[in-house]
Amino acid sequence: MNSGLPLRDMSNSTPETRRFDPGEIEPRWQDAWDEADVFHVDDDAEDPSYVLAMFPYPSGEMHMGHVRNYAITDAFARYRRMQGDAVLHPMGWDSFGLPAENAANRRDIDPREFTMDCIANMRSQMELMGLGLDWDREVTTCEPEYFRWNQWFFKQFYEEDIVERQTAELNWCPDCETVLADENVDPHPDHEGTCWRCDTPIEHREMDQWFFTTTDYAGELYDTLDEMDGWPENVREMQRNWIGKQEGASVSFEMTTGDSVDIFTTRLDTIYGATFFALAPGHDVAGEIAAEHSEVAEYIDRAESSDDLPETSGVFTGEYAENPATGEQIPVYVADYVLEDIGTGALYAVPAHDERDHAFAQAHDIEIRQVVEPTAAAEHDPEDIDTEAAAYTDDGVLVDSGEYDGLASATARERFVEAFDGEFRTAHSLRDWCISRQRYWGTPIPFVECPDCGYVPVPEADLPVELPEFVQTTGNPLDAAEEWKHVACPDCGGDAVRETDTMDTFVDSSWYFLRYVSPGLADAPFDSERASEWLPVDQYVGGIEHATMHLIYSRFFTKVLDDMDLLTGVREPFENLLTQGMVRKNGEAMSSSTGNVVSPRPFVDSYGADTGRLFMLDAAQPEKDFDWTDEGAQSAHDFLQNVYGLAVAYAEGEVNTGDGGAIDEYVAREIDGAAATATEEFEQFRFNHALQEVRDLVSLLRRYADHTEPRAETFERGLETVTKLLAPVAPHTAEEVWHELGNSSLVATAEWPPTDTPAGYDTARLLVENTREDVRDIVDVAGIEEPRTIEIAVAPDWKHYARQRARELDGNVVGQLMGDERLQAHGEAAADYAKSLAGAGHLDEQLPPEREREALARASWLLEREFDAETTVYGPDEAPENLVSEATPGRPGIRIEE
RNA sequence: GCGAGGGUAGCCAAGCCAGGAAACGGCGGCGGACUCAAGAUCCGCUCCCGUAGGGGUCCAUGCGUUCAAAUCGCAUCCCUCGCACCA
Q: What is the total count of domains within chain A?
């Protein structure tokens, strides 16, 4: 026993020499990484692991959500780097946007200046965290070098007909004085919704705006989701909901007005039950009719100005539409429940089989005609269906549908398309992306409006169109920049004005991950060849709040760029996606307004960056929310000091070393086992599980040194393995420990430990754990006060043999086993054992006898230590008979004496 | 309403895809070692009954498949999130 220097007192006996000062070591190692250029990835790197955190909006201060995001990507990036991969882990700034403009207005400064200060501040905080980022690839979207490519893309998209000018009713925030995308309107129960920034109720306005035609890609954006296994199901589902998909058919109705009106339906099977026709108030034909019928015009006015018409409101137009199925003339209504932007804004109504149609029919006293009834297999009895009382909306069998009676709904839908001259259509609810913003702090849209030539793109040679000096105004600032605004038309040279809208900042973030590939490139947005090789991003990490907008727009951009041959064969930008959970405090989201917050900088000042990183990754799996607690942070800090203390004690010769004895092999195997398990866990982003292995290994090394004089080579390998496994998570501490252990290189670039699990590791571990538990049970149940000796005996060879045979046998196991001469020799005992094997059901694989003995012998020190009793392990042929008789493979015989 | 994800011991939480040992961890609680003491560290216990490793009951509920179910299937109840006047 090594009683000379009890390690257990070490951490505190002389704290001043045992503890490290994060404030001292962290900057030192950050400098060392910089000097060695550890995080730079060369342009000629072959398909590096691309690990990407969603780039932040530079608000000026990092919050714990950022820290968590980057702690995750950094740990993964560092892990991959140690495995020998080239790793691209870049960072940039999503630096255009309204907050900077608002702040500039408030403080009477320039948004650019404000933004650049914020960036500098946030960058210094990231450096403080010791994030391993390739700053050579830093990208800042508000720099002309970046946003000129937004303009370039815009022009390219324009030529490819992906940019359109559309008149649309847009969401208008009267407070921000800007158009909002649907995505930026928060739903509200009482009205149309509120502005996502200022919560002001929004209004609607008709405006001409620039759009990207995302709808062209709706089908692919939707369908590919099924194959995107690397994305969490909830995000995929949110995108499915967002994009929407309705498979149906369109059919045309001839109207008494002379118009032919297209409808879209998913229930073409119910067409025989159509008893009226309805148009949205905004439908063109409704407008035409209104021109002649004042009642209709009045209704449309009311519908468009007020949001609270009753659901069944509507007005008969006096016109009729011909049902192509029946030839019948059905009355045409204009009804508010028909929405202009869903389907075609016109529908035939089947009150018997649609709830809204039913309600409308009842209110307007229109016939309800049932044409579908439940099949025999359905839950409802056809007798119980009363379509006068309620619509029956399930599929079923057609009735009252002329020659088609008896057809199943699904079949009818297919047949009717042909029969009534319709066409199959898949509709998506995704809309084109309005990118116009009436703000200053964004990318100017590179167009000029000429009174003679219309909208004319700014020639490529004149890009970038830079922003004029900031103007404070309540309206659109660029519109007020008189000098900047007036230019000569690029086509005719006449007087013209620039487009004064800027682009939605989601344009910036739709391709920034491509710019990282070649950030300084002056003649193209990115190096196409390299980007095609480096993309998709291997691992993308960010918040769930970007599930729809950013993550759909980026997918859209990637597809467009691939179609334009700027990329080759890259249809999706992000192979694997991880949405990290929230950092909470006291069960609630951290919020600086309520003071319920922990700020990174002061935390790092007192505990160090590593403590924060370790705590965050240790507290929960990345996708889950977790509560920040002071205890947790303290415990993470203690652990780091603990590891450091152990390493220093060893390095300074305070751990007496020797040959370790039988224990040594046990420890050696545990080191290998820990490395193997931790690696699997890192691979799956389960840092907390990997860290558990590290904690266990540290604890084992302490017990090893406490119990005996450890073998130097093993002990040192154990410490090095701990250090390496810890390095991705607590990189500064790991460097310091690595250095203390006598290494002159950096652990950041060290080779990851070997990850082969020792042979029979899991089985042996289970055997040892079970045996230890059995001993505890016996001591406990038998009331043994102070065990003096513990004897353990491996089952005899013949039992192992019998068990092995039994695993291969079917049928009469006992009979077949006892037919074996080798077992017959053991008579009654063999027969009993054969019976128990036969009754056992499944038989696990067990170690062969000699291996079992070795495993128990290696671990016997644990029993010795726990019970302070002399422990003997007998091999299969060495043990006393009475001990062996109870032993079975995987379950050694045990005898304990006081 | 549609869809997705869930319901595991006092609490948090793994395991479930690839069925096989009352079910990893952590917190809290209890006991012990070390200490003058505290802290730190270490060793146990923490569903019920058991003076030699045994028995019973168990993973929301109920059925079912199987030699064997927390794990697979069906049904029911509850929670969380997303979408929703989608024709």
A: 5
From the CA of A59 to the C1' of B20: give the distance in Å: 55
Note down the domain range covering A76. Answer: 38-141+217-242+513-580
Which residues in window 568-597 of A are less than 7 A from strand B by Cβ? none
Q: Which nucleotides of B are covered by protein (CB under 7 A)?
A: 3-5, 13-14, 20-21, 25, 27-28, 34, 39-45, 50-54, 67-68, 81-87
Q: H-type helices in A337-404, by residue range?
A: 355-364
Q: Compute the distance between CA of residue A118 and CA of residue A217 in angstroms, rounded to an integer.
A: 36
pLDDT at A17 over 70: no
| Lookup: nucleotide whose C1' is closest to A699 CA | B42
ipTM: 0.84
Alpha-carbon gap, residue A467 to A477, rounded angstroms: 10
Residue A8 pLDDT greater than 50, yes or no: no
Of A539, A561, A580, the one marking the end of a domain is A580
**DSSP secondary-structure letter at A8?**
G
Residues of A 418-477 whose CB lies less than 7 Å from any atom of strand B:
429
pLDDT digits (tens, 9 = 90+) for A448-500: 999 999 999 999 999 999 999 998 876 678 988 999 999 999 999 999 999 99
Give all strands (DSSP E) within A492-605, no chain letters.
Answer: 495-498, 502-503, 539-543, 577-580, 583-585, 588-589
A555 and A481 both lie in a single domain: no
Q: What integer pLDDT is reported at residue A474 of this predicted model?
A: 65
Residue-wise pLDDT tens digits, A192-209? 677 766 778 878 777 888
* Three-state SS at A747: helix
Q: For residue A766, say whether its CB is under 7 Å from any atom of strand B.
A: yes
CATH number at residue A380: 3.90.740.10
Note whether A805 and A884 are same-domain residues.
Answer: yes
pLDDT grade for A765, boundaries at 50, 70 and 90: confident
* Among chain A residues 331-350, those with CB within 7 Å of any atom of strand B: 336-340, 342-345, 347
Q: Residues 6 or more apart from A378 whose CB is under 8 A from it?
A: A394, A396
Asked if A310 and A353 sit in the same domain, the reply is: yes
Average pLDDT rounded to a whole number, residues A372-395 = 79
- Specify the CATH number for the domain of residue A658: 1.10.730.10
Residue with tokens 């992306």: A433
pLDDT at A339 over 50: yes
